[in-house]
Write a structure and sequence with these properties.
By secondary structure, the protein is α/β, with parallel strands linked by helices. Helix content is 41%, strand content 13%. The radius of gyration is 21 Å and the shape is globular.
């Protein structure tokens, strides 16, 4: 009888601990990630700072969905875009690239910032390097000169580089086509962060050269008609939408998943 009582007591204590954990998670300030140590990576790259965070799990679900496409034969090279600026596509690109490089088989992942007009990858990673895609496409240097890693050898980055006079022409050049062929032989997955779809033509140019386009949509901001227009432009460029990602969503934990935490 004593053993049963102790078991029930232990189970009750564990349940109280889980409820306290949920209560802390629900507090908004608990979802804000602070910079750790001397790292210059932006706190919004939550998969870098906290692999077990709830938001990280959402990116892992996105990874699973992508890897399940085409009956387990997912696109190996795809672009990420949005309708307008500031919808969260670069943050999505980095976080997704990080969780993809952490998959069980440890695939080699390359993330390219192709927004040569106002690329943000350098800022989010907090790196000093400036040369990148524009220098490669203009013939100033080779691809191997601009690739770099942070802490993960399986994840490689290429910045957008200095702003050129003709970004659209560079993206539609033979040099870009050759670059995509080259990286596809060296990496398991290549993710290309592109400019937004509506303001410029760059995303459509890239979309037509890759296996699919992932659309990022900011909830509560981007109007339905704008998203529809962006998708029309994607289809006109002979590109394929492989999925949508909603950003700016308030995270809520329903009661029924308490028992899983």
């Amino acid at each position: 009888m004593g053993k049963i009582t102790n078991a029930l007591k232990k189970a009750a204590e564990e349940r109280i601990h889980r409820i306290e954990k949920i209560t802390k998670i629900k507090e908004r300030d608990q979802l804000v990630v602070r910079k750790m140590g001397k790292s210059k990576v932006d706190p919004s790259i939550i998969t870098y700072f906290d692999p077990k965070a709830l938001i990280t799990e959402q990116y892992k679900m996105l990874r699973t969905n992508i890897m399940s496409l085409n009956k387990g034969r997912p696109p190996r090279i795809f672009a990420i875009t949005s309708s307008l600026h500031s919808e969260g596509k670069t943050v999505t690109s980095i976080n997704l690239a990080m969780v993809m490089s952490h998959a069980i088989r440890k695939p080699k992942v390359l993330l390219i910032d192709s927004d040569m007009r106002r690329g943000q990858l350098r800022r989010y990673l907090g790196v000093e390097q400036r040369v990148g895609l524009s220098e490669v496409l203009s013939g100033q240097c080779g691809l191997e000169d601009v690739m770099f890693n942070l802490d993960d050898d399986n994840l490689t980055f290429v910045l957008s580089g200095e702003v050129p006079e003709n970004p659209a022409e560079l993206l539609s050049s033979d040099n870009m086509s050759d670059l995509l062929k080259e990286v596809k032989t060296k990496f398991d997955y290549v993710i290309i962060d592109t400019p937004p779809m509506i303001p410029v033509t760059d995303a459509g140019i890239i979309g037509s050269q890759v296996e699919g386009v992932l659309m990022v949509i900011q909830a509560g901001r981007t109007q339905r008609g704008i998203v529809q227009r962006a998708e029309e432009l994607i289809h006109q460029s002979q590109s394929k939408v492989i999925g949508h990602v909603l950003t700016n969503i308030e995270y809520h934990l329903p009661e029924y998943i308490y028992r899983y935490l």
